[in-house]
Amino acid sequence: GGGVQQGLKQLPRQRKVPMKLFTLQCDYAQLSDIERLVQRFEGKVTDSQFQDRIALTLAVPYGQIDGFKKNLSDFSRGALSLIPLTP
């Protein structure tokens, strides 16, 4: 019965990175740039609601938050801001 153990050992391991959740409202035209920015900072888009604007829920690694916020602010010329969902 060691087949499952053997299989598990061969799976690539990923470290669990602690992340903080944020919401962000953006325009449709900004979405692809924001998605690229999230990937660059090793974050994830965990939810998106499409209405007149897009409401995104983002998970950003704690160590990347400051850099992500600065890049987001530079990209949007200060128009977009992250709203923390978790303390």
Automatic annotation (TrEMBL):
- Superkingdom is Bacteria
Question: GO molecular function terms here?
Answer: anion binding; guanyl ribonucleotide binding; ribonucleoside triphosphate phosphatase activity
Which Pfam family, any one, appears in the UniProt record? DUF1949
Q: Which InterPro entries does UniProt cross-reference here?
A: EFG_III/V, UPF0029_Impact_C
All copies of domain UPF0029, residue ranges: 24-78
Q: What is this protein called?
A: DUF1949 domain-containing protein
